[in-house]
Protein 1
Amino acid sequence: MVVDIHADVGKNRIFIRIEGQIDDTEAKGVADSIIREMDRMRPGFDMVSDLRTAEPLGTEGVVQLKRVIETAREKKSGRTVRIVGKAAQTALQFARTSKEIRHEAYLAFSREEAERLLDGEMP
């Protein structure tokens, strides 16, 4: 498993890249790291999650995903974009989990497409 979390304070965006499976024992630590990066952002910050090579989350991973989404909402986040590529099963799991707590995310097939969407270069 590889998780890379990068906050671009200038663009007010958090980039998250997940490769492989986040084990249930590691899920809380990953969520805590993402939430710490949110603390560096201004209200309206955007989040981009690259899930192209991520595997579906376990039970605790889903709990932590909900916590991250709810915390982002509390901190007045802006848009969410998920880079899904061909990771259909993982993308569906994230979409279902988001829908349960009424959070909408845009989908993109590359980081470049996600950036263009957030920069207002795409409809």
Protein 2
Amino acid sequence: MNKINKSMKKANQMKRHLKVSTGRKFYTCILLTGALQFWAKVSLAQADGNAGISEATGLIKGYFSTGVNLMYAIGAVVGLIGAIKVYNKWSAGEPDTTKVASSWFGACIFLVVVATVLKSFFSV
């Protein structure tokens, strides 16, 4: 009876070892497949590096001119708001009207000058 128990234990140990071994092989296979796919994607991505950079440059140039136009529009809105505030202060007879007018006018000029300088600096 003792020999049968020993052989049963041995058989169970071999089954467990086989299951663990099969699981490790499966996970190793999955890991190697993933690594191979990653390597293939990386090597393909490197081939289009110059084309991607050229496309990004073109897109940024398109966005840049839109951004400059947006800065001009913001400058116009700031100018209108400033004009209304200065008019309200002037109508109320407040003494610091010139200071407020110069600060709002300066903000509008700053936005327009920055947009123009950036446009000419980047030669867009």
Protein 3
Amino acid sequence: MTLLQSTLDAPTAVYRVFDQLGRLLYVGVAIDPEVRLACHAREKLWWRDVDPSRTRIDWFPNRHAGITEENRALETESPIHNVAGTTNLPVPAHLREPRGYDNIRRLRLLDSVWIEYGTLVGDSGRSADIQAYIEWRLDNPDTPLPGKRRGPVKRTRKAAMRTVMPKAKTQD
């Protein structure tokens, strides 16, 4: 028996991953679903939304049966993050998983600001622009931002409290 034949004849899993609200995030097929899920956990930006307790793994007698079930699931269950084999639109550039980065950082921005910024620098230029700004800021920590009187200053808790609670006036 060839390696290809043994792979085609091997029991095959169809796995489904869900978020905490029970929404189907992804459907996949694998001979070793634990290894495949670990790859997704390392590589996929959407993995942070996965609720591992809701992951479902169904076994099929061979690869053909597994792929048949995966295709049926893709057509009828509308997983959010599957693109291949679905009618889902391609993932926008700013949501694709970057390669070669250990940590992915989140920015808290209004959607309208992010969209306008993408229009300004181009969808694929956001990361490079933000990285260039951060590098410039690290090299120029005391240079004020436009419209600011000074550069960033780390406040102590005591200084922050003074700005929130001004000294009480004494009556004469």
Protein 4
Amino acid sequence: MDIERNLKRETDRLAQKSCASGNGSGGCYLISGGCLYARKNPGFGRCPYFEKNVLPANPALESEYKRYFGEAAAAGSKIGKCDRCGSSFAKTSNRAKYCGRCRDIERKRKEAARKRGSR
């Protein structure tokens, strides 16, 4: 319970300080019901804009947030930043450079370049 309260407090601060969608009074330009992280809202919601664009600015909070919501594979898993799109992802190895979506795109691009070179 205490971990949830601390996590909510930290995400509230980050959202109020850094979110471009907030209007400064607890409202949100993207969500009609107001900011999900505003202190006046009960519970602990999830905002896709915040998770993709604001949360990566604080890697420690991001890993704790994803661990809380069960997105990281394990407590010690590393969070990486995709070299192609810049989004955060749970690294499965030290060599991982791309998120799941970009990994397939980059593999196809490199395979096509390799085949072009052999022709």
